[in-house]
Specification:
By secondary structure, the protein is of the alpha/beta class. It folds into two domains: about 300 residues, P-loop containing nucleotide triphosphate hydrolases (Rossmann fold, 3-Layer(aba) Sandwich), CATH 3.40.50.300; about 70 residues, Immunoglobulin-like (Sandwich). Helices cover about 45% and strands about 25% of the residues. The strands form three sheets. An eight-stranded mixed β-sheet has the order 3-4-2-5-1-6-7-8, sandwiched between helices. α3 packs across α6, α4 crosses α5 and α6 packs across α10. It is globular. The N and C termini lie far apart (about 50 Å).
Length: about 375
């Protein structure tokens, strides 16, 4: 099974650049590598400065790249489902163009990305697959798609499976609408998505890497992503800080560099115990393999870019009746050194003279913190419903 590295972060932080640089670094170390963009607004071709298509193509020795295309994928994976939806829409009065566009059901884009990952992982062609994922919100949609698909399957087709196949066969014979085959594709799709989710949730195989800039709003979104990725069972092995300005600066840039220093300290504290990797600002727009190689050198130096940098979970949420427990990994802390307070969907943890802001799942904003205790290196914060 190939190593899978998933890069995500707020739009504009340089996620694609870091993903492409990582893929190039892996290939340079002799690993057969694929960098696959699942972002609907692709910029991978711009980053590598090569035209790319919906199938893998070589862009450097041992390095392939591709950009997932929804409509190409629909024809590849969901021909009968697409025809089913188009036929139903046309029957209901939609014109041909509208039916073609609307045939792309919600989640199909994310689903096609996961199916490509499944196909490439099983092909045996690659040692490393680097996913240039969509910005944070869309990535979380991608990773929770199997559960959503299961719900959709049950709601859209509440009849028994065999009944659908029997009736669907008759419908196809009389009207040409592939109801039974469309259902079979959807059923098979759900099974494949469950397999891919298992792959993505295996910390020995897949690691997510959070890309951010040393800026306030970007850091806040990265914190939320870190919380939710762990909440859904996905391993995060590194935080990457892109466009770090190094050295002395004057004038307006001096203030900016000073602010970056403060944010870098916040990142180290907030994402501990994750390793924090910094990417120096090159002072120019980054595109093309030569500049990507410089990014890779600054990012990894002598480290193996495909290694697992951190595998232990550091955040868990457990349900206990109507109450919830949030467990945080705080290695080395002493019981008398810790205090915890809740502010909306944030838990502020004071450890000796260090303060850490932990983003809680949004629903816990409507719960109250009733206690926090330290045991075996874990801080366990108890939440109960507000009366």
């Amino acid at each position: 099974m190939p190593r899978v590295l998933l890069f995500t972060g707020k739009g504009g932080v340089g996620k694609t650049t870091c993903a492409a640089a990582t893929a190039l670094a892996c290939a340079s170390r002799g690993q057969r590598t694929l960098v696959l963009s699942t972002d609907p607004a692709h910029s991978l071709a711009d980053a590598v400065d090569r035209p790319l298509g919906p199938e893998p193509q070589q862009i450097a020795p041992r390095l392939d790249a591709m950009e997932v295309d929804l409509y190409y994928s629909m024809r590849k994976y969901w021909g009968n489902m697409r025809e089913l939806v188009r036929s139903v829409l046309r029957f209901q009065g939609a014109d041909a163009i509208a039916a073609e566009e609307l045939a792309a059901l919600p989640g199909m884009g994310e689903g096609s990305a996961l199916l490509w990952l499944d196909e490439m992982a099983r092909s045996g062609d690659y040692d490393v697959i680097v996913l240039d994922a969509a910005p944070t919100g869309e990535t979380l949609t991608l990773l929770t798609l199997p559960q959503v698909t299961q719900w959709w399957l049950q709601k859209a087709f509440p009849l028994q499976k065999q009944a659908i196949k029997t009736v669907g066969f008759a419908v196809r014979k009389t009207t040409g609408v592939p109801l039974d085959r469309g259902y079979e594709e959807l059923d098979r799709l759900f099974g494949q998505l469950e397999v891919v989710q298992t792959l993505l949730q295996d910390p020995d195989v897949t690691s997510a890497r959070l890309v951010m800039n040393p800026e306030r709003m970007v850091i806040q979104e990265a914190k939320r992503a870190y919380t939710y990725l762990q909440l859904y069972g996905y391993g995060v092995d590194a935080a990457i800080v892109n466009r770090v300005i190094q050295g002395e600066a004057e004038g307006v840039m001096a203030k900016y560099v000073q602010a970056q220093g403060g944010y870098l300290e916040e990142i180290e504290q907030s994402f501990s115990p994750l390793p924090v990797l910094q990417v120096p600002h090159l002072g120019q727009e980054v595109f093309g393999l030569e500049l990507l190689a410089q990014i890779a050198e600054g990012l990894y130096a002598d480290r193996d870019p495909a290694a697992v940098y951190h595998s232990e979970p550091s955040y868990k949420v457990e349900a206990e009746g109507d109450a919830y427990t949030v467990a945080l990994r705080v290695p080395g802390a002493e019981p008398g050194d810790i205090e915890a307070e809740q502010f909306g969907d944030n838990l502020v943890v004071q450890i000796a003279n260090q303060r850490r802001n932990v983003t809680l799942p949004a629903f816990l904003a409507y719960y109250k913190l009733t206690g926090a205790a330290l045991a075996d290196g874990w801080l366990r914060a108890e939440f109960e419903p507000e009366e």
